[in-house]
Amino acid sequence: MSLIVEKTAGGREYKVKDMSQADFGRLEIELAEVEMPGLMACRTEFGPSQPFKGARITGSLHMTIQTAVLIETLTALGAEVRWCSCNIFSTQDHAAAAIARDSAAVFAWKGETLQEYWWCTERALDWGPGGGPDLIVDDGGDATLLIHEGVKAEEIYEKSGVLPDPSSTDNAEFQIVLTIIRDGLKSDPKRYHKMKERLVGVSEETTTGVKRLYQMQASGTLLFPAINVNDSVTKSKFDNLYGCRHSLPDGLMRATDVMIAGKVAVVCGYGDVGKGCASALKQAGARVIVTEIDPICALQALMEGLPVLTLEDVVSEADIFVTTTGNKDIIMVDHMRKMKNNAIVCNIGHFDNEIDMLGLESYPGVKRITIKPQTDRWVFPETNAGIIVLAEGRLMNLGCATGHPSFVMSCSFTNQVIAQLELWNERTSGKYEKKVYVLPKHLDEKVAALHLGKLGARLTKLSKDQADYINVPVEGPYKPAHYRY
Amino acid sequence: MSLIVEKTAGGREYKVKDMSQADFGRLEIELAEVEMPGLMACRTEFGPSQPFKGARITGSLHMTIQTAVLIETLTALGAEVRWCSCNIFSTQDHAAAAIARDSAAVFAWKGETLQEYWWCTERALDWGPGGGPDLIVDDGGDATLLIHEGVKAEEIYEKSGVLPDPSSTDNAEFQIVLTIIRDGLKSDPKRYHKMKERLVGVSEETTTGVKRLYQMQASGTLLFPAINVNDSVTKSKFDNLYGCRHSLPDGLMRATDVMIAGKVAVVCGYGDVGKGCASALKQAGARVIVTEIDPICALQALMEGLPVLTLEDVVSEADIFVTTTGNKDIIMVDHMRKMKNNAIVCNIGHFDNEIDMLGLESYPGVKRITIKPQTDRWVFPETNAGIIVLAEGRLMNLGCATGHPSFVMSCSFTNQVIAQLELWNERTSGKYEKKVYVLPKHLDEKVAALHLGKLGARLTKLSKDQADYINVPVEGPYKPAHYRY
Amino acid sequence: MSLIVEKTAGGREYKVKDMSQADFGRLEIELAEVEMPGLMACRTEFGPSQPFKGARITGSLHMTIQTAVLIETLTALGAEVRWCSCNIFSTQDHAAAAIARDSAAVFAWKGETLQEYWWCTERALDWGPGGGPDLIVDDGGDATLLIHEGVKAEEIYEKSGVLPDPSSTDNAEFQIVLTIIRDGLKSDPKRYHKMKERLVGVSEETTTGVKRLYQMQASGTLLFPAINVNDSVTKSKFDNLYGCRHSLPDGLMRATDVMIAGKVAVVCGYGDVGKGCASALKQAGARVIVTEIDPICALQALMEGLPVLTLEDVVSEADIFVTTTGNKDIIMVDHMRKMKNNAIVCNIGHFDNEIDMLGLESYPGVKRITIKPQTDRWVFPETNAGIIVLAEGRLMNLGCATGHPSFVMSCSFTNQVIAQLELWNERTSGKYEKKVYVLPKHLDEKVAALHLGKLGARLTKLSKDQADYINVPVEGPYKPAHYRY
Amino acid sequence: MSLIVEKTAGGREYKVKDMSQADFGRLEIELAEVEMPGLMACRTEFGPSQPFKGARITGSLHMTIQTAVLIETLTALGAEVRWCSCNIFSTQDHAAAAIARDSAAVFAWKGETLQEYWWCTERALDWGPGGGPDLIVDDGGDATLLIHEGVKAEEIYEKSGVLPDPSSTDNAEFQIVLTIIRDGLKSDPKRYHKMKERLVGVSEETTTGVKRLYQMQASGTLLFPAINVNDSVTKSKFDNLYGCRHSLPDGLMRATDVMIAGKVAVVCGYGDVGKGCASALKQAGARVIVTEIDPICALQALMEGLPVLTLEDVVSEADIFVTTTGNKDIIMVDHMRKMKNNAIVCNIGHFDNEIDMLGLESYPGVKRITIKPQTDRWVFPETNAGIIVLAEGRLMNLGCATGHPSFVMSCSFTNQVIAQLELWNERTSGKYEKKVYVLPKHLDEKVAALHLGKLGARLTKLSKDQADYINVPVEGPYKPAHYRY
């Protein structure tokens, strides 16, 4: 796509694939609203008082139908919003079009190049001469990263006049980041400093981003307060677990139409994501094998009847391989060479480096046959056998299907709205320092409570006497902080 | 589409949506071949002797990727083939294109009108001046029906000179059938008699078609031998059960992206199809309720923890409704009016008359909003609440997804190949009368055996002593005819 | 026990372990009645007309609490009853005591020797000078066998004066049978002929007995009509499947207290019993491996995610071995030698010859340590490793636990009552020849229907129009004979 | 039983039911050792250095076979041990006999009165003139409670000369506690102070005891350091969850033989114990309904397909009721009156006050019929309908079956051994204050690791590069403290 910002009739900026899909997007947004009771309840509860009036929110989070409902909840509460996706394949173009037309500045399309991806991120952060956003909704931490790297480069430049050097790194993506910062520095050597000054805080969606935040907190380099939404119970134990239980088979089916029953599937990692994936595959009739580094998670797998082996033990016998680890270098090209013909390899955990895509692409004589977008067969020259790689090693549920379903995203995104409100409401109180926080348990319980009615549930109420007996307030929170659910 | 037959460079007739999708179809056919070991084994075993040399086969069966592998197995064994789909939404256009270009005369596309549908059926049966096919592969019995109705009309016409009168029926589809026969009669009053004369037999794929055949056998009107493939164990207990367990959630996800976990789902009917659907929904986290007329199937549902209630009991509380009965008038417009907003209604059992589509369409003031093809929201004027109907009431796994996966279809279709071979090889022996037959158990066991290696299974072998002890041959068959599996 | 018949105050014969347990037995019988709606419905429907008035019924079927409710249903309908167990370990002594005291002549206790077992069988068949029973309820066919062998011996004796020679066979149990017949012949050379003359027929409970009956039918040696209760759908697809799903883990837990989760379990055979066992073990968290001879059942296992391998493949890795085949020589001593220390070996399929008990007992240097009754550790001298054998290789759910639960046995036993009524009512009509019959489908459906109310189910009713559409009567039966459920 | 302490030949005190069962106990202990790899590994690792040499350990924890292996692990590491059970029904008499004969001073039998129970507790704490134990292994906190109440009473007595007054409380059990303390005070007014002085600390097994400890910590009344073993991941997420998944159906089956399939079961509470129970019941074919106060746990139940309702909604329709809440007054007599005839009511969560046993016993006209020990039918006079209460409202898995299986208890008890070692090794270092501690994550991971080999698992090893990437040590611990598993 040509990287030229467009404008709506009303003057709002955007860059999406196809504005004519906005009506289709709107229809699906309306369906999703019925499935997202937490977000709709936020509109009812907070909408009238317009708490976000005056707030600029930048989001870097998969631009899907569900995210559209999140964005329109933020705008319903008074915010101005700019948005990009946090994954090159995860945008649903009809969702992007509807939001761009109706509600917010969107820069996102399915199938961005890395260059385009970072251009979109920069656009979402750029609120014009007045600087950056007040708040960030981040997923994986790329928006946060850009600001931190920008500030770092500006400091070096101020001290030493040295510009960032993209050729200083082998990492293709980081070269692009440095290029963007370098080019920005030339026009405004205080751009990211000004952003940092304005920023009230970030709420981070996922494990990977949270890990980065805790590392920055530990090293004292975190530039603004952060709320770790990922570790709300109603996020990590719902979205990661039940979301993936739903969307892993969805992605497999849409990408390959393969029968799961009877197959041998390897799930690398048995955290919340791995647990959801293993459960889905087992229930669909696959024989599931787990790989793990952590003995506790390994023992959990065993208690569910899943053998725990190493990838080497099973690489030549399995039909489906799924990475869920949040780590890198899980399935290497040397593993892939040994797999059965048409073994399926995919990632639902983290960046595309869980799978050694670089090694695969540079394997001598390897041939790539694109069956359809996000479904490639890679054929090795020695054996003429091929493996099927989904979404180029990126999150397959977003690349090959439509991500998690609305209901479970309503849990996650209600946490996001509450986190953003908390940061904004306390922006002058000093409550939040440059640290990473999780939401208090009573808010976590509130998120859950907002989702019960839709499913017809009726809670039991504690009597005062019972509450005293177990030493909790009648209205909750009901569990100690260390409770694991 | 304009109903004009096209021709390949080599002169073979066809009518498909888009010939440019043939390459894409070929890639997916090649993937499917790896998943269809039974069909590939037939090619290896029978290909060299070309048993179908000289045989004309007409197929009326969903024109999907899996069917493409079936068709090319038939041609690999020497047959000439003409094909149409048996469902207006079930064709995969890339599969049709690849077959039309490379292997057989295809008349099929996704989204036919009823008019177009019967035109395609007629084309598939029309082998030119030399008459009709030698063999039919039927699914649901429409090709068989056309011939039987044609013969009946010709007899009346011969006796009385009276032509079929389309206005004699209310059924819109049957009006089209009568029109086709009437028009045919004018040009050749013996057309269907000639077809009947040539026909060696039909092999029928599914419950609905089989029921029709047994009724014709009972009334003495069956015109040629029929093999009931549906009731091979390796068909009904695999395709119907495990196929639907796979493809029901696939269809739901592709059509609606709705989260299944937490929802209340009603499965109407607990036969093999219903069992597969209920199992899939339960495992995805839905609360499943079953409706049944048969006390035995009802008791089976209860033993699996599924409550058995009537549709009336639950119509206003459930979120998802699936019909699997093979009967008509299961979900009526009066039920639909009482459903929750955005309740999903779909059919995976039989024709679109399981759901009262006629009643819905003619409901005063009802409004249809097409979200995307095969996904319609119907809004009732009184409540302004809508329900979501999939695939216009037709088979949702074929209309909204890609049908059953290759591996399970390989079981079904290997039965088809064996049935066709049996009919053809015995065409002059008198072995088969004008009756309905099932394949003998040793062939059923053979079909299963051909699918074990792909899944890494190793069978135990009976000793002679053990075989004698349980009174079976060492090589099988191992079970009495009444065994239920 | 001394083999002397005792008598109640009222003069009825019996031999049980401990008459003081009668009150306890009565309490559990009363609980079971609430769980056995089919039998209780028979009492209500048929009790008033006393259809069995004048009928003598001999039963050879596990003398459990559930059987007690069956016996008292037969007596409530007017029958006189004599009973023995069909397994040396399956009697529940409190049930036997209650029935002996209150309702029928019982000869059964837990832990009979083989000698005692056949003495009990003979007692149950001996109605005094007037000859044998009118009807037999058999399970496994031992009562039927004794009569057939008796008649055969009497014929030989009549022709040639030669008595049966127990030393003519290696089979220890058959030696006892021949001894009993020989001793009987001396006192009455027409004893079994007289029995045969009087006998109206037998209803047989289980696969093993049914196989024997079909073999006798095939060879023309069957002496009286037989109804195959085992193959009623409401028997084989319920008792065999759901009964074992319940009672296999029950037996494992009571016998060994072993944690099933995390273990590797091998299920030999994947028929109805094997399916129930595999399901229970999988759901309890075991990794289940199946062995099979039949490719169709093997493919079913694979579709449920269970690998199919041979015993040799897994013998040294598995923790639990269960035989369900109905065949002999499944787990041989040579397998047992290679098992892990404290591997558990048990049988829930058939006679104790599924496991090579003979080979184990005669293994040089093997040591048997009885942990508790029916739980033995056998230690091999080479390795000093032991295996744990349950119920001496006999049915472990009856030997180590209390067999199947009441509700599922109500299905089986309601079939028995209906079969006995059918034989008795038609005793003079000639309807039943010396062949094996299954109950007609409408009675099978009736049995199911009698069990729905207890579980709160509500059936849907067909309209006349719908019934016509699928060509069945409104009131059923709803399925063709070949339907597999 | 007469409350007179007996002595072994070697002079060790004990009081058990039947010393002749010691051999049987020993056989089962030997079987259990094979299933408890964590404890056996502790013996191998720590046994040679005799770290507990000189330590006196008092345990108050179900005196089962598994606990026997724990006790003999403590003695193998050099400790002297005195033991009582923490539940009147949970002792396995053969286990108690074997330990009393071979290893430690045991005061425990199945079916203690409350009076006997507290006598046993006092005996276990009484190490003679030299005072009390160095360490306590507690389960539910009764040993800890007795010391805290004793110290409190002694302080009051010292200040004011006032003795505890048993009639000051309505609670029958607390009356006994006060009586014991009062009687002790008369003979030694510093008895519990001396105990407190000597005590190094307690390790507590279960949720209920842990709650008491945190309350004492909060109020500043905790007298010695405590390690919360319950909240080790390898305890609460294993024993509570997988243990109950195993032992709930075990208890139901042994107590009632009832068929679980088809029944409606209510699980009150969806914490770890409730999750295990619900999973077991669902998998056995029951329809499970959950009651909850906590919206997060409620939403988890819904995601697993379990409806969340109140007890009032379902009380008259369900067949089985299980309490797992850790709270009191869950099922009241007013609920029980409305239940179906023969509904089963049981508790697997906490004390017998989860069920209103007091209300039931004092209900006018109610009749108790003991079917067998721990299985009572209570008949209400108005309806003549009865309910079946298991284990008199106490923990049914211990009262009606044999508690959790060895393997999962090995996880829990390895934590206990490690906790006791930690307290003892640090007894003079000041590391532990009068607070409640959990074990550090690396020890938790170690416990898990010790249990993998038995189940044939193979862990994947992190490379240094991967470990750095996710910022953890190569050897673990692998997760942040807040991780929920």
TrEMBL record, chains A, B, C, D:
GO molecular function: adenosylhomocysteinase activity
S-adenosyl-L-homocysteine hydrolase NAD binding domain: residues covered: 240-403
InterPro entries xrefs: Adenosylhomocyst_ase-like_sf, Adenosylhomocysteinase-like, Ado_hCys_hydrolase_NAD-bd, NAD(P)-bd_dom_sf, S-Ado-L-homoCys_hydrolase_CS
Reactions this protein catalyses: S-adenosyl-L-homocysteine + H2O = L-homocysteine + adenosine
CC cofactor: NAD(+)
GO CC annotation: cytosol
Pathway field: Amino-acid biosynthesis; L-homocysteine biosynthesis; L-homocysteine from S-adenosyl-L-homocysteine: step 1/1
Domain of life: Eukaryota
Similarity comment text for this entry: Belongs to the adenosylhomocysteinase family.
HAMAP family associated with the record: AdoHcyase (MF_00563)
NCBIfam families reported in the protein's UniProt record: ahcY, PRK05476.2-3
Entry protein name: Adenosylhomocysteinase
Species of provenance: Cucurbita argyrosperma subsp. sororia
Phylogenetic placement of the source organism: Eukaryota, Viridiplantae, Streptophyta, Embryophyta, Tracheophyta
Gene name of the encoded protein: SAHH
